[in-house]
């Protein structure tokens, strides 16, 4: 069970109080009625699903009720940062963006069996 | 003209818990869900006769009227004297939203030396003195339901929940109180 | 006498305090504090169980949680029976009934033992290669046979009458393990002022000090120091000491699950006490002081009763005062086992010989052995044993194939060295590293804020352990902001430093493929099985594990993992770290489901939500149905009525007179603010700015992909205040959905949302006499059609209390929905009922509501629609604004497949035979005689007998339904085919005149 | 390859099992293959097997970063059924079920397919409507699925508590008698052995690090930890890691990967005869041949590639299990674990061509991949061999997210896979 820092409550609280909200920084197109089928597919369905750094939304639904964003490593589940909705992606010195070119070693996820 | 309808609170006259953690339904109160931006705080504070807290987990008390911080633009107001809070809110000119939730919520009081233990049987909040001191309030969960927890004294807690969840909350707190009191 | 093998003057139990228990029906005496294992050995019982596969006779191997053999069934009474209990952990209580497992007809004569004879046929993985012919025999013959043979204990068959408790806890430092290392670390952390939780699986602190009597700390015997230190910690305000408490799982972000056994050791527990208590600890820092586990030696027939770990024999002697034999052999590859021989010898037990596979044991232990006159055979191995129900002799040979000689023994103690318990560290996702020098896997890279100390960290030596633990305790306390206290100092002494150890098959395991040298005792995995697995291409340790099932028994490989790995390493000719460990999974030791679920049972399993009028409904005979978490009145049968009768009567009564209905469960959201209408414009397909205060409108809400998400009537109370209703089941998700858009897409809008579902009790009064019923009760609202037309809302009073009175209808009749503050609901209902009943009205439930709305063609989202239906499909396309440039779902709704011809559309269905009522969910076809798989056009979503229509009616989603009006389609049922005609969805009062009644 | 049989076992028993050969070869990779399949789980190995057996394509490598069968194939609760709602789902799962029925004989490897019946409990009127919709659709499609009264359900599964006072009383059940379980490892091993026997290379401990493409955009091979391996065609079937692999070819998919947890109890003598699923209370349970209760829990709510998850997911499932079977409160959890599932927005799989020529994908099986193994593998082989989907898999293509032709089993029925 995760321990999640809520930037509005300014403390870490149990995951039980939170609901995950999918990827962060996906803006609903202002002219949504006019976009193409492909653009709609991109907006609504296609996701990076990164292995490593992810920017994601959480709602402190059983706390202050606010949506906010967080940067987390999807392999270690470690949080790097939480920040309020509407704020830009933070700089995360030393944190590599997830990239298909640098796939985690097998051991990192799988224990030590070879 | 019919007789005025009688009020029937959800928990009736139940009691539970243990000597070390008593669990009792709170008396009826009026409650308000108050929503407003920072620019309205002074006017609203003046109207309600207390300073609306702006820090997480903060609360304010004046003449039996509590204001609990629930979120950056959200307060739960509880008036134990059953004052008409909607009327008070209507008197404030600043932009806000006030919704009467007096009957939506009900409250359970947990008190005694094992009160914190009783609540900790199902609530994942850290109830340590340093982090949840007297006067602290937070929306959180209790077992499978949402509650607002308010610490009103060293050994006194108020658990606010929606009325249909109250029997569940009461049962859970009673079991927790039995165990915490052992 | 509590057993012939009890040695006067030995051990820490009090001879005067006894308890009686039975094992397989025979009564025995034990001492308070005994485990089942110590009590059985004290009474000369060595055969206690049968192995999983070969049904080999098995005894007690260990004195702790790692026990693979001595699993028994323990009962307090018929319902309080627990299978697969480790006899080495379970404390005896007076009146306890213990039964052996996995044997028939008896433990000493077990028919299943024949498996041992046929074991050559049951090599690892044999079942993958056979039982395939004839095909049907697998299910009918082979599998049932395998199933009966497998399994250990017998599952409980009665509901568990015990209760379980739970506690969330926070601390600065959680210390797991209360041996030397754990106690030292906890003391240092606690003295520095940290909030500390210290837990240990045993009843008393001390860990290895239970058996290791050669240790002194601060001048006290080690065990006494441990008790004093635990007591000192327990007395500190900032410390919680939990005994009989196993840290079973280490989860994300320093979340650790502990299982505390509260009453299973008590003869007559207070009924208020929970059986077990789950602790869910969130620790800022964790110190793992989990110690290490002694390994057995792998050699031929190393599994006979009486063969056990050397440290276990020492525990039985030094703690329980029980001699495990009278003539004991020792087979070891490290020094620690010598101390077992010394202790036994001093207690008067004959030590036949110490057989040491090493050529050069530690000098100190050799010298002591000489002094005590114990024969030591270095460079020798035990290569076989004899004895059926108990070991009777061991065969010893010089390494390298010397001649073997048999030595009579009645117990054989073994030790291949110590395996650090890195289970929790590994669960924390830390990476272990192999230390080639000591042949151990040790904590390597940490993934969470924790530290390992003592022997689980590979730290050898008493003083080194103490110093490491004290430093860690202080460091963790400081790291969590504690600055108090003086530095703790401790000094310890012990008689011998231990060295040595080996992993893998000993000389006596042979290369012969028939030798049974057990690696995993419970699952009967031998060295030869691991070799076979490798031969068959299983080169990953995970493959070997799964193919042989080594490490997959209830002990999860605590003894066997390293041996299995070493044997694989030898056969594959690859170093151990190149083969790797299997992943450690929670729980460390098995945890009862009851503990994990704690309070969640019966009424506390899942809240049953009841409306404010529930008691009234119950008193008036309502039968309830589950809708989400709600209990809703379903129908109100009168004496002698079936459900069908009751619903017919209710349906008729509502249309002829009136009915009252509890609609409180509908979701309600108060939408307030200057931009409320703008916001609703975005959330619903309809246009809201045109709705005047005091009026209501039916709204459709879509997901962004264009499918119907929810619906409900929305009333505008003021320019800036709307009363939104949602479906009963949809209330929480609609609220979340709206908050999502409001906070993240449209944060500029000045509007706030508040759930008011439970603020209002809602009493629907529907039917021609509705107005007559409520009129005298209402104050301040003109109820005339002109002043208060259909789809309006007014605020006023009813029965002297505030109401939001809606003029609306889900029945097609003129009607009202009376909203009153919830606590008044029952009283207002009573007042309404007092007027309604004399006027011939009835109370009706959800079933009647469903029929009445279906007669009018009103849809129920979630029943007539699923997540694949657009408003156009559902026949409510009129509610989609053509003028708005944006609302959620506007784009999704235009996608090619959503505007395609031939989509499933909601229509009415009339059976050709009006008395036939279709089954909801039944499928519809055009040609009932086509072969399977048939082309299905759609399905029946709602279907009822309509008393008011005098026939059955149904709604259905049918491909191209609107274009099929009047067509005959078919509903093929298992026993007949039903012909239906596609019709309009409105079956009664098509003009809607009754609404204005 | 040596045929497995009771006679072979008996013969080997007499000589200490010294004669068994490796079940599959462990070759070094060739420079180039006609087909490289990424992911040696049941789907990938099976596809290789069917490529060799039915399409005559034997110059095939299945590459796997860890040990074969180590992903979701070896981590799931092994439930097999085909009583889905939509034609697309029924087609593929029924195709799979038919292959399950003869798989042990086809592979000469006992995968222990055990048609012990899968029963889905209905707890309320809504469940009943939904399950009966399935029952009828299945019947007209030619798939067995029947509606049981509570008493019939109890007769089929005696441990069931059907008392009306339960928090979620049981008002009926849907039963697919041909549904059941199989031995998960055996499926991977059986396919690996049979594929290897037909010349397929199974290359373990070989991690894909990139997908190389030619000037025409078509794939030319994979960069791996064992060097570059050329490939005329590539099929990706890497369960939770499909997004990561496909991103190497710049293909974005509608997937999110979440941990799915499961647990087993200690082994006990036979007590539980079938598979029981309950959607309303979120639980599924069966008993393995070894005697363990095998219990499927839920997924964590957040994307994660960690094969662990929160304790609350496990306890939530056990709540429900113990409510349905109060006798199990004294049973002990012996081991819990997690696998990474890749999930699509409509909870149905994607199998089809991709925008990259000669790159094929098989993904999004979510929590339902095991039961699909032989069917998915069989149709994936067809897709790779022919370059176009088999008609039974034609609905599973990627373009449905653009057009809106979703196969939303979850939305339609809210039935957990």
From TrEMBL, chain A:
It comes from Shinella pollutisoli. Pfam families: SoxD. Residues 86-114 are annotated as: Disordered. This is Sarcosine oxidase subunit delta.
TrEMBL record, chain B:
It holds the Pfam family SoxG. Gene3D superfamilies: Heterotetrameric sarcosine oxidase, Probable tRNA modification gtpase trme, domain 1. This is Sarcosine oxidase subunit gamma.
Automatic annotation (TrEMBL), chain C:
Belongs to the GcvT family. Pfam families: Fer2_4 (PF13510), GCV_T (PF01571), GCV_T_C (PF08669), Pyr_redox_2 (PF07992), SO_alpha_A3 (PF17806). Residues 904-989 form the Aminomethyltransferase C-terminal domain. Residues 172-431 form the FAD/NAD(P)-binding domain. This is Sarcosine oxidase subunit alpha. Residues 613-884 form the GCVT N-terminal domain. NCBIfam families: soxA. The keyword Electron transport does not apply. It comes from Shinella pollutisoli. Keywords: Oxidoreductase. Residues 516-596 form the SoxA A3 domain.
UniProtKB/TrEMBL annotation, chain D:
Its main location: cytoplasm. Keywords: Cytoplasm, FAD, Flavoprotein, FMN, Nucleotide-binding, Oxidoreductase. It holds the Pfam family DAO. It catalyses: sarcosine + O2 + H2O = formaldehyde + glycine + H2O2; sarcosine + (6S)-5,6,7,8-tetrahydrofolate + O2 = (6R)-5,10-methylene-5,6,7,8-tetrahydrofolate + glycine + H2O2. It is found in: Cytoplasm. Coiled coil: none annotated. Its cofactor is FMN; FAD. Residues 35-79 form the Rhodanese domain. The keyword Cytoplasm applies. It is an enzyme of class 1 (oxidoreductase). Its EC number is 1.5.3.24. The keyword Cytoplasm applies. NCBIfam families: soxB (TIGR01373). Belongs to the SoxB family. This is Sarcosine oxidase subunit beta.
């Amino acid at each position: 069970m995760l321990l999640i820092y809520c930037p509005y409550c300014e403390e870490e609280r149990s995951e039980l109080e939170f609901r995950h909200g999918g990827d962060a920084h996906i803006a609903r197109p202002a002219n949504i009625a006019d976009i193409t089928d492909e653009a709609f597919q991109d907006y609504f369905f296609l996701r990076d699903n990164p292995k490593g750094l992810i920017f994601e939304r959480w709602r402190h639904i059983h706390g202050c009720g606010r949506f906010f964003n967080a940067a987390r490593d999807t392999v270690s589940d470690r949080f790097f940062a939480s920040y309020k909705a509407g704020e830009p992606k933070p700089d995360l010195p030393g944190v590599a963006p997830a990239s298909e070119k640098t796939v985690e070693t097998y051991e990192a996820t799988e224990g030590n069996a070879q | 003209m019919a007789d005025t309808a009688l009020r029937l609170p959800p928990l009736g006259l139940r009691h539970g818990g243990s000597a070390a953690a008593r669990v009792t339904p709170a008396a009826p109160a009026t409650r308000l869900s108050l929503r407003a931006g920072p620019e309205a705080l002074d006017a609203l504070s003046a109207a309600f006769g207390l300073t609306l807290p702006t820090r997480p987990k903060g609360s304010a008390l004046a003449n039996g009227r509590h204001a609990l911080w629930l979120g950056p633009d959200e307060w739960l107001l509880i008036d134990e004297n059953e004052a008409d809070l909607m009327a008070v809110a209507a008197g404030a000119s600043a932009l806000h939203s006030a919704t009467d939730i007096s009957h939506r919520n009900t409250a359970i009081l947990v008190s005694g030396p094992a009160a914190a233990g009783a609540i900790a049987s199902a609530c994942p909040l850290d109830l340590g003195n340093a982090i949840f001191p007297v006067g602290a309030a937070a929306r959180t969960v209790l077992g499978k339901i949402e509650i607002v927890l308010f610490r009103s004294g060293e050994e006194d807690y108020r658990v606010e929940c929606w009325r249909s969840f109250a029997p569940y909350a009461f049962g859970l707190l009673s079991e927790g109180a039995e165990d915490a009191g052992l | 006498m509590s057993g012939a093998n009890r040695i006067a003057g030995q051990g820490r139990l009090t001879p005067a305090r006894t308890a009686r228990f039975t094992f397989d029906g025979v009564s025995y005496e034990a001492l308070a504090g005994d485990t089942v294992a110590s009590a059985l050995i004290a009474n000369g019982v060595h055969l206690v169980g049968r192995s999983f596969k070969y049904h080999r006779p098995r005894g007690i191997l260990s004195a702790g949680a790692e026990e693979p053999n001595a699993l028994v069934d323990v009962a307090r009474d018929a319902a309080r029976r627990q299978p697969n209990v480790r006899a080495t952990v379970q404390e005896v209580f007076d009146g306890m009934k213990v039964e052996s497992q996995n044997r028939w007809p008896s433990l000493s004569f077990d028919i299943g033992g024949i498996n041992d004879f046929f074991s050559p046929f049951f090599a690892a993985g044999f079942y993958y290669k056979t039982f395939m012919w004839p095909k049907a025999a697998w299910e009918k013959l082979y599998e049932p046979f395998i199933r009966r043979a497998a399994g250990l204990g017998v599952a409980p068959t009665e509901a568990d009458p015990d209760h379980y408790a739970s506690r969330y806890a926070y601390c600065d430092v959680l210390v797991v393990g209360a041996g030397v290392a754990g106690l030292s670390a906890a003391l240092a952390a606690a003295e520095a002022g940290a909030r500390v939780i210290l837990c240990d699986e045993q009843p008393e602190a001390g860990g290895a000090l239970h058996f290791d009597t050669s240790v002194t700390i601060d001048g006290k015997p080690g065990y006494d120091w441990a008790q004093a230190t635990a007591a000192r910690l327990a007395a500190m305000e900032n410390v919680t000491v939990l005994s009989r408490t196993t840290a079973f799982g280490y989860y994300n972000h320093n979340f650790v699950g502990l299982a505390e056994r509260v009453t299973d050791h008590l003869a007559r527990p207070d009924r208020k006490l929970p059986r077990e208590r789950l602790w869910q600890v969130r620790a800022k820092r964790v110190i793992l002081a989990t110690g290490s586990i002694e390994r057995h030696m792998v050699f031929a027939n190393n599994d006979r009763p009486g063969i056990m770990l050397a440290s276990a024999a020492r525990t039985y002697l030094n703690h329980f005062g029980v001699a495990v034999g009278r003539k004991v052999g020792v087979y070891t590859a490290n020094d620690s086992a010598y101390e077992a021989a010394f202790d036994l010898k001093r207690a008067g037990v004959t030590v036949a010989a110490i057989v040491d596979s090493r050529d050069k044991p530690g000098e100190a232990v050799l010298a002591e052995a000489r002094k005590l006159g114990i024969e030591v055979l270095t460079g020798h191995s035990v290569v076989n044993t004899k004895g059926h129900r108990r070991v009777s002799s061991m065969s010893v040979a010089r390494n390298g194939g010397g001649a073997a000689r048999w030595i009579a023994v009645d117990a054989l103690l073994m030790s291949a060295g110590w395996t650090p318990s890195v289970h929790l560290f590994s669960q924390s996702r830390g990476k272990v590293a192999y230390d080639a020098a000591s042949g151990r896997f040790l904590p390597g890279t940490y993934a969470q804020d924790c530290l390992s100390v003592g022997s689980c960290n590979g730290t050898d030596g008493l003083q080194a352990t103490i110093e490491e633990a004290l430093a860690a305790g202080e460091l963790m306390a400081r790291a969590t902001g504690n600055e108090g206290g003086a530095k703790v100092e401790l000094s310890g002494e012990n008689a011998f430093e231990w060295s040595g150890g080996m992993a893998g098959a000993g000389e006596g395991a042979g290369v012969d493929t028939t030798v049974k040298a057990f690696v995993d005792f419970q699952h009967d995995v031998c060295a030869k099985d691991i070799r076979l697995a490798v031969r068959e291409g299983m080169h990953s340790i995970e493959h070997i594990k799964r193919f042989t099932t080594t490490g997959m028994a209830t002990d999860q490989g605590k003894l066997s993992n390293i041996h299995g790995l070493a044997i694989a390493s030898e056969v594959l000719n690859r170093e151990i770290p190149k083969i790797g460990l299997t992943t450690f999974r929670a729980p460390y030791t098995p945890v009862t489901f009851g503990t994990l679920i704690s309070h969640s049972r019966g009424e506390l399993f899942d809240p049953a939500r009841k409306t404010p009028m529930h008691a009234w409904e119950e008193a008036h005979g309502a039968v309830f149905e589950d809708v989400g978490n709600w209990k809703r009145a379903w129908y109100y049968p009168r004496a002698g009525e079936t459900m069908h009768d009751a619903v017919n009567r209710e349906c008729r009564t509502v249309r002829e007179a009136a009915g009252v209905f509890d609609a409180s469960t509908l979701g309600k959201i108060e939408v307030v603010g200057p931009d409320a209408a703008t916001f609703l414009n975005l959330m619903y397909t309809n246009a809201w700015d045109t709705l005047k205060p005091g009026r209501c409108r039916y709204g459709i809400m879509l997901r962004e992909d264009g499918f119907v998400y929810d619906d409900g009537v929305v009333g505008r109370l003021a320019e800036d205040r709307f009363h939104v209703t949602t479906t009963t089941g949809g209330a929480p998700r609609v609220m979340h959905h709206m908050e999502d858009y409001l906070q993240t897409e449209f944060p500029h809008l000045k509007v706030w949302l508040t759930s008011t579902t439970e603020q209002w009790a809602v009493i629907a009064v529907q039917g021609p006499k509705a107005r007559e019923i409520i009129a005298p009760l209402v104050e301040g609202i003109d109820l005339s059609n002109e002043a208060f037309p259909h789809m309006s809302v007014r605020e006023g009073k009813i029965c002297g209390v505030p109401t939001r009175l809606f003029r609306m209808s889900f029945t097609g009749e003129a009607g009202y929905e009376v909203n009153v503050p919830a606590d008044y609901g029952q009283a207002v209902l009573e007042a309404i009922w007092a007027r309604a009943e004399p006027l011939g009205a009835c109370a009706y439930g959800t079933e009647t509501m469903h029929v009445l709305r279906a007669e009018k063609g009103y849809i129920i989202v979630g029943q007539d629609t699923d997540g694949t239906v657009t408003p156009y499909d559902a026949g409510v396309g009129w509610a989609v604004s053509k003028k708005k440039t944006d609302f959620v779902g506007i784009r999704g709704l235009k996608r090619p497949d959503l505007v395609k011809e031939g989509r499933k559309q909601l229509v009415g269905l009339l059976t050709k035979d009006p008395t036939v009522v279709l089954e909801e969910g039944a499928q519809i076809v055009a040609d009932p005689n086509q072969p399977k798989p048939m082309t299905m056009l759609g399905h029946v979503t709602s279907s009822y007998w309509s008393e008011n229509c005098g026939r059955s009616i149904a709604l259905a989603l049918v491909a191209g339904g609107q274009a099929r009006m009047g067509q005959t389609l078919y509903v093929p049922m298992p026993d007949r085919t039903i012909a239906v005609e596609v019709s309009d969805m409105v079956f009664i009062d098509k003009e809607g005149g009754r609404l204005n009644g | 390859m040596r045929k497995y049989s009771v006679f072979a076992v008996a013969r080997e028993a007499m000589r200490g099992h010294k004669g068994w050969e490796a079940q599959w070869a462990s070759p070094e990779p060739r420079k180039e293959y006609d087909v490289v399949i990424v992911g040696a789980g049941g789907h990938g190995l099976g596809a290789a097997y069917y490529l060799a057996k039915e399409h005559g394509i034997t110059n095939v490598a299945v590459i796997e970063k860890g040990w074969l069968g180590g992903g979701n194939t070896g981590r799931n609760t092994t439930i097999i059924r085909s009583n889905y709602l939509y034609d697309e789902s029924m087609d593929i799962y029924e195709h799979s079920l038919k292959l399950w029925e003869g798989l042990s004989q086809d592979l000469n490897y006992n995968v222990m397919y055990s048609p012990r019946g899968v029963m889905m409990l209905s707890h309320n009127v809504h469940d009943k409507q939904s399950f009966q919709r399935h029952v009828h659709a299945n019947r007209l499609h030619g798939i067995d699925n029947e509606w049981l009264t509570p008493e019939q359900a109890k007769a089929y599964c005696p441990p069931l508590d059907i008392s009306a006072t339960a928090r979620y009383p049981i008002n009926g059940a849907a039963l697919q008698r041909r549904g059941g379980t199989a031995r998960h490892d055996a499926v991977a091993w059986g396919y690996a052995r049979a594929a290897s026997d037909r010349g397929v290379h199974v290359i373990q401990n070989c991690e894909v690090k990139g997908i190389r493409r030619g000037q025409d955009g078509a794939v030319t091979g994979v960069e791996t930890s064992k060097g570059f391996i050329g490939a005329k065609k590539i099929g990706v079937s890497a369960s939770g890691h499909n997004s990561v692999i496909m991103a190497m070819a710049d293909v974005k998919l509608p997937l999110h990967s979440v941990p799915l947890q499961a647990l087993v109890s200690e082994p006990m003598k036979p007590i539980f005869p079938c598979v029981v699923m309950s959607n309303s209370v979120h639980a599924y349970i069966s008993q393995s041949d070894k005697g363990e209760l095998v219990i499927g829990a839920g997924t964590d709510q957040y994307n994660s590639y960690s094969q662990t998850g929160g304790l609350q997911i496990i306890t939530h499932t056990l709540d429900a299990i113990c409510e349905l079977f109060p006798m199990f409160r004294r049973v002990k959890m012996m081991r819990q674990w997690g696998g990474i599932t890749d999930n699509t927005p409509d909870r149905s799989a994607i199998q089809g061509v991709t925008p990259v020529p000669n790159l094929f994908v098989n993904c999004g099986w979510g929590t339902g991949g095991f039961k699909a193994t032989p069917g998915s593998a069989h149709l994936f082989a067809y897709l790779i061999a022919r370059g176009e989907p088999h008609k039974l898999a034609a609905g599973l293509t990627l373009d449905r997210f653009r057009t809106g032709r979703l196969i939303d089993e979850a939305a339609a029925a809210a039935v957990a896979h």
